[in-house]
Amino acid sequence: MVVKKLTLKNFRNYEDETFVFDDGLNILTGRNAQGKTNCVEAVFYLCTGASLRIRHDRQLIRMGEERAQISAEAQTRFGRVLLEAIIFENKRELYLNGNKVSRSVDFIGNMKSVFFSPGELRLIQDGPDERRRFLNLSISQTSKEYAQALLRFGRILEQRNDLLKNRDATLILDTLPVWDEQLSLCAARIIKKRQEYLQQLSSIAADTHAYLTDGAEKLALSLDKEYKGEEGDIAKKLQRELASCYERDIRLGFTSVGPHRDDVKISIGGADARGFSSQGQARTAALSMKLAEVEIFRTLSGEPPVLILDDVMSELDLPRRKKLLSRVRDVQCILTCTHAERVLYGAECKKIRISEGRIIQ
Fold first, then answer.
1. Cα–Cα distance between 155 and 150 in angstroms, integer?
2. What gap in Å lies between CA 127 and CA 196, rounded to an integer?
3. Going by C-beta distance under 8 Å and a sequence separation of 6 or more, which residues neighbour residue 60?
4. Where does CATH 1.20.1050.90 sit in the chain?
5. Which superfamily is assigned to 1-112+305-361 in CATH?
6. Phi and psi for 277 in degrees, rounded to 5?
7. Is the separation of the CB atoms in 340 and 314 below 8 Å?
8. CB pairs under 8 A, 24+ apart, for 163-172?
9. What 3 state SS string does 160-181 have?
């Protein structure tokens, strides 16, 4: 899968620019705060329907404008795909091959990407929210079933939490079992998919990590909570857990168990990476997970995704830079940096220079 063309109109600091990418390594170069990250953010948005940097889409609209527009043409093994997002102050419109898409789950995953930047240290060092977000964005790109289960789970969870805030205790206790049954079925599907995905990710990430560290460290990933059996077994277990927490949930006013509370355990050399890893170790672990994500997408989709490396080279030492470039030779890669000559090491590439939101020819 490769992105052939990307057009940005009133997106972030871009007025109207079109990028044409090569199938291999593409380097966006220029001084800081010129729009390099904004460009790759747009690619990721078209793949996932979400930004990694902001929560509200209106922040993507260029200052003084009423709407932003992102469109891309990609070539996949199934043929050409056209994606477009028009972002307004309080809504957005999504288009696939010229047809308006009413559900985001039908838009996500038509173009696939893996994004890595120095900020991905959050994946290792921050709280569970970051690791759940990583899983959700990653799995949703390759499984529409997962994306649908996630949306339905979120709606049911919101209804259950609203019920828990009700002052009528009898109404709560009479109604909770109804919500629990529906919530458990969606939750079981989410958990099962996460288990399967992490099993693949852990194995590939461990091999990648060993490659990047010359075998000096061992990386391991797993869910922090063990769920055994098939979806039906997991759903029954969750129903029992939810029932056992009624008193606590009513007191707290929210649902305290389920996949929205789960975490991913990341260990380096047997030690918890969140509490004991250095900045360098955390960075290498996060990079290993992202490169493993590329391989999983390749396996599940039959072709590699677009790999986005945003200002990564400045954070890696020379041996790891060379190993990284060697690892991604057969993947379309969009890499941002301030000085291209410092990261090339003889690699062939297309250079695109950006200044103040404009492509400089």
1. 9
2. 22
3. 11, 12, 45, 51, 54, 68, 87
4. 122-301
5. P-loop containing nucleotide triphosphate hydrolases (3.40.50.300)
6. -85, 150
7. no
8. 164/249, 164/250, 164/252, 164/253, 164/254, 164/255, 165/253, 169/250, 172/250
9. HHHHHCCCCHHHHHHHHHHHHH
Per the CB < 8 A criterion, the answer to whether 341 and 19 are in contact is no
Assess whether pLDDT exceeds 70 at residue 343: no
Measured distance CA(236)–CA(184) in Å, rounded = 7
Domain with CATH 3.40.50.300 in the chain: 1-112+305-361
SS3 114: strand
pTM above 0.70?
yes
What are the backbone dihedrals phi and psi of residue 143, each rounded to the nearest 5 degrees, phi first? Answer: -140, 105
Residue 268 identity: I
Q: What is the mean pLDDT of the chain?
A: 93
Q: What pLDDT does residue 71 have? A: 98
**CA 302, CA 201: separation in Å to the nearest integer?**
16
Pairing verdict, β 350-355 and 219-223: unpaired
Give dist(CA 103, CA 105) in Å, integer.
5
Tokens representing 187 are 């939750």
CA distance readout (Å), 94 to 25, 44, 83, 112, 299: 28, 14, 8, 16, 27
Task: Compute the average pLDDT of residues 185-194.
Answer: 97
In whole angstroms, give the CA distance from residue 355 to residue 33. 9
What digits encode the pLDDT tens for the residues 285-338? 999 999 999 999 999 989 999 999 999 888 888 888 888 888 888 999 999 998
Correct CATH for 122-301 of 3.20.20.60, 3.40.50.720, 3.30.470.20, 1.20.1050.90 = 1.20.1050.90
Q: Which residue has the tokens 């001084």?
A: 31
Residue 193 identity? K
Are 133 and 46 in contact, with CB atoms under 8 Å apart? no
- Residue 340 confidence (pLDDT) above 90: no
Instruction: Give 62-119 pLDDT, tens digit per residue.
Output: 999 999 999 999 999 989 999 999 999 999 999 999 999 999 999 999 999 999 998 8
Alpha helices for the chain (secondary structure H): 36-48, 122-125, 128-142, 144-164, 169-212, 231-244, 246-252, 273-276, 279-301, 318-327
